[in-house]
Amino acid sequence: MFSKACKYGVKAIIYIAVQSGKNTRSSLKDIAAHINSPEAFTAKVLQILVKCHVVESLKGPLGGFFLSNDTARLITLSHVVYAIDGTETFNSCGLGLKECSELKPCPMHHKFQSIRTEMKEMIEKTTIYELVLRVGEGEAFLM
Predict the structure, then answer these.
(1) To the nearest whole percent, how much of the chain has pLDDT over 70?
(2) What are phi and psi of 38, to 5 degrees?
(3) pLDDT band at 102 (very low <50, low <70, confident <90, very high)
(4) 110-126: burial string, b at 16+ Cβ within 10 Å, e else
């Protein structure tokens, strides 16, 4: 359902938050390596997240990307998804038809609508901090 950029953005923000919890700023090179993403593509994704105030960055030898624990508790997956993919994922047709609505539904419209609603609720309720805890406790992995 999400674009490749969005998937990389979610993995990047989780990695950055995990590292920030260890008081470490993450370089672009480290992030790209740990989420298995091309560096140039990762840079573009992170640029969007910085511009949308989802993650912070500092330039220079002691710089890098970071996220405070307080911010990680407030930022939800929806912040990342909406910053990168917008709301199109939750408004577009599951089959990719240009015209699909309650009045003119595609064959999957009604089934896909409930899936989209559940997915939207999940990303709006799931904080980055929750995901960081799962990674920290070894219940989830980024690679």
Answers:
(1) 100
(2) -60, 140
(3) confident
(4) eebeeeeeebeeebeee
